[in-house]
Write the structure tokens for this entry.
Amino acid sequence: MPVQWTAAMATGVDELDRQHQVLIGKFNEFVEAMQSGSGGEKVQEILAFTQTYAAKHFSLEESHMTRLNCPVAAENKKAHAYFLQRFGELKTKAAAGGPSAMASIETMRELSTWFTTHIKSIDTQLAK
């Protein structure tokens, strides 16, 4: 179940939209790996990339929301903190137990939910 970038995800800030597309692309690589049976091996890679890239992206996005007085800036910042904490937990869990189908499925579910919910409901508030 890959995630498709759509205009409904646009924030109105080209740099942020490109970064969202990079994150979605990495997620889709992970989905492809799962479908080919090598998802367990990709868990650490996707978690490490997502955690690092997302932290940089979140910082930039939060600064745009603050600068533009976006009404959901505080909510967005809290959601970002949760995301980073949650993916830190998933990364630790996957490292402790090694690559597993369960860790892959949990990672895929969490990322899919984030992309289909957070970007469309929170990040797009920048466009307004």
